[in-house]
Amino acid sequence: MLPCLTNAVVAALIFQQFFNLHYGIIIWVLDFFGIDKINWFREPTKTPVILSITVFWPRNTGWNVILYLAGLQMIPKEFYEAADMDGAGNFRKHMFITIPILPPIMSFAVTLSIISGMELFVEPYVMVNNYLSAAPLNKDRLTVAVYVIYLIKRINRFGREEHR
Q1: Which helix (H) or strand (E) holds 85?
Q2: CA 152 – CA 139 distance, rounded (Å)
Q3: What pTM was computed for the model?
Q4: Which of 49, 53, 67 is nearest to 103 (CA)?
């Protein structure tokens, strides 16, 4: 439940400190195992991984756990009792009772996750230290909301189509 209540800015700052090049705990663990330091926020191939980890934990995990737990609790126990009487094992109960009943919960969780991904702005903005002002635009950290802010700030297009 805690990940779902954590503010996105706080979570982004915590993960930024985890992956800090000079004193981050992840860098310390890599150094302990003899792996060279990685500048997570400046390498185009590493930044999306860090942003994905940062977004997955605080933003989506808490809600999805709550949704799936509610979905599992709504399955009547009689279904499992009947399957036990028929001699079904745990795998069969899971495949023929649990999975067929959960698609509405799964589709709702996927829909909420997609909406959450579309409005993703805070984490990339906070973790990469206002990269919007840097030219050219860093496409490795681009999300829909970040691109909208880029169009507004950098190109000065406020939602209007330019006529030629």
Answers
A1: helix 77-85
A2: 16
A3: 0.67
A4: 67
